[in-house]
Amino acid sequence: MAATTAGLAACSGQTARFSGGSGSGSSNGDDGDSKTLSMAVVAGWDECIASTNLWKVLLEQRGYSVTLQDLDVASTFTGVANGQIDLYMDAWLPGTHADYWDRFEDDLETVGTWTNGTLVLAVPEYTDISSIADLRSRRSNFGGRVVGIEAGAGEMKVMRESIMPKYGLDDFTLVEGSTAAMLAELQSSIRRQQDIVVTLWTPHWAFGKFPIKTLDDPDGNWGDPDQLTTIATRGFSEANPEVAGWLKNYRIEDDALAGLMSRIQEAGSGQEAETARKWALDNQKITDAWFA
């Protein structure tokens, strides 16, 4: 994971160009009215897309100018640590993103936690197993494959280093690709009534759209649930007490978040911010509590 001041490898495999952060704080003009923030969005993590676009809308309603940058997780942590990005709302701590946090923690701070996140393996409801431990004896049913997401995702690291070896799944292939590709294969398999096992997490809109279930983890190899945490360049909260205070108040229930994610997913690419704006109007009682 090589950091530069110009750019880093993003999810697409191309170079991720940073427009630059605000230097651990709002960039105020001479009149004191110009307030700019940059936030990272990691493709495929729908709770990140939903929360980040929601806060873009809410902050802009309060006079801030917010830019979003699409990056992978490695580039995101590097960019926030370097001050090229101000905020990232979807750090899974203390477990899934532990390696990134341990590497950059001296240059980062936590601003607030807003819900819990759990890593899971999921199968269609019609698949006749209930536990990860059952997979070993059913290899042929799944073609010897676990369909995963982006290779650099923290969940994939846990799969490779914990779940697969500890449950004796070494003869399974962990398919690396993208979240979008995984979801497309999941949908296709369900349509054909075929068995498939995929890496997923909660909260996620897929559990409301597809007839799927999670597999039990009897040995607890996923570890404890993470807290979805907003992180910032060190010094951000001191430089931006207003924004930091609002983000510390941010809490959202799973059903509300699922509703927002579903609406964004249904609206399609390019409509994330507008969909978040409409959701905020419909759920003003929820959002008002964060600014009390």
How would you describe what is shown here?
This protein is α/β, with parallel strands linked by helices. Helix content is 36%, strand content 23%. It has eleven helices and eleven strands. Strands 3, 4, 5, 6, 9, 10 and 11 form a seven-stranded mixed beta sheet that branches. A two-stranded antiparallel sheet has the order 1-2. A two-stranded parallel sheet has the order 7-8. A hairpin with a 5-residue loop joins β1 and β2 (15-17). Its main location: membrane. Residues 43-279 form the ABC-type glycine betaine transport system substrate-binding domain. Keywords: Cell membrane, Membrane, Transport. It comes from Kineosporia mesophila.
Protein traits:
292 residues; alpha/beta; 11 helices
Quick structural gist:
With 292 residues, this protein is α/β, with parallel strands linked by helices. The protein has helices spanning 46-61, 73-82, 98-104, 154-166, 179-191, 206-209, 236-239, 241-249, 254-267, 272-282, 284-288, and strands spanning 7-9, 15-17, 36-42, 65-71, 87-93, 108-124, 145-147, 173-175, 198-202, 212-214, 226-233.
